Amino acid sequence: xxxxxxxxxxxxxxxxxxxxxxxxxxxxxxxxxxxxxxxxxxxxxxxxxxxxxxxxxxxxxxxxxxxxxxxxxxxxxxxxxxxxxxxxxxxxxxxxxxxxxxxxxxxxxxxxxxxxxxxxxxxxxxxxxxxxxxxxxxxxxxxxxxxxxxxxxxxxxxxxxxxxxxxxxxxxxxxxxxxxxxxxxxxxxxxxxxxxxxxxxxxxxxxxxxxxxxxxxxxxxxxxxxxxxxxxxxxxxxxxxxxxxxxxxxxxxxxxxxxxxxxxxxxxxxxxxxxxxxxxxxxxxxxxxxxxxxxxxxxxxxxxxxxxxxxxxxxxxxxxxxxxxxxxxxxxxxxxxxxxxxxxxxxxxxxxxxxxxxxxxxxxxxxxxxxxxxxxxxxxxxxxxxxxxxxxxxxxxxxxxxxxxxxxxxxxxxxxxxxxxxxxxxxxxxxxxxxxxxxxxxxxxxxxxxxxxxxxxxxxxxxxxxxxxxxxxxxxxxxxxxxxxxxxxxxxxxxxxxxxxxxxx
Length: 505
Description:
Layout: E1 3-8, E2 10-11, H1 25-37, E3 43-47, E4 51-52, H2 62-72, E5 78-81, H3 84-87, H4 91-103, E6 107-110, H5 121-154, E7 167-170, E8 173-176, H6 180-191, H7 196-206, H8 216-223, E9 232-238, E10 242-248, H9 258-263, E11 288-290, E12 298-301, E13 307-310, E14 314-315, E15 318-319, E16 325-327, H10 328-344, H11 353-375, H12 377-415, H13 422-427, H14 430-440, E17 441-446, H15 459-462, E18 463-467, H16 491-504
């Protein structure tokens, strides 16, 4: 019987500086497929997604973790790699993982080292020796690279590939350029209390980015760089001492003084740990987004001190075409009432055993169909590689759809909690109420009102609650550059909101 193995491909982009010669994914894949073809039909290989820019010094790798989960669940008969050092460069991690693979009766193979047999005592001893050598090479290369970095920083060289506004890199050293006055002006204005958003507008006028635009968060990161006081620095990974800082405090001409740099930092009075001035976060913090760009709304204050949720307008990937601002108290009340309406009529959700059995049976069958197709060598021969993968995608999609359906059922059954009543909810602190809301809601989209003052659109029209499982998977996330894409409410929602507003009136 043909065994189906996962072909694992790893590439570290650090290159020779870490002692790992670049072995392209294509070379690794071809060698693994050749190994399977030469097995005489004993093995069939399904190439997993390539693991790029990941060190072999750790066994905690996203793609590798998925393969190990497939082995644990019996969905995969084992793993084949190009060479042992593609599998691991850590002795302890490699040996413990190989032991686990053996416990599950799975196969481990190296396409270019076929004589290695981990199932025999002598084979295990030889493989362990090779991993010891691989770990030694990685450690010595790391130490050499750390020494090279230290010498470079001590000479005033900036190793980081990215540039800095206000400087050009000449022979590895930073030299002030024509944008330097703009940086100095940013620090001066920030020291006088100007907002990050206003500073972003200033830089977009006088020193625009080649790609994208300046946003408040980007200006904040710029002002945090010690490079502007003349420092060059580098953190080096060290096996014994952890991360060691290498700092040269006089590496290049400074643009600002130490006091000017300190005045340009985030206001220290703003609270730590997600709170401002010691006050709780707003009720909908982290749940509410602008429909004009899909980015999270920030807390703000209006001219009379009223609480607002407001779009920042400027993001690293572009400008929101329809930024919204909404009264926080009104929106909080609206969302609470909608959720409380669910709680009022909510009884304990009892799992529908019939539906669960049906969905579980569908998932089981989808997985069986997928594995049968994977093992059908006659179908692969007739369809060809391209046609076979196209059909396989359909089987994979069927499994994914069945898993999603079962997951949604689990989510619905897990929302309701015995004893959760309107009175109980309203008695909870703000942080606890927010946690309860997050159990029901993925996010809340709010769009700009078409009118102002007494003609402002009611919350039923301006807001749309996306319940658990309804939000798009590609919503912007912190520290990830995401495109500015508006959220489409749809006419049905507008019509339903108008009816709800009329009833409320």
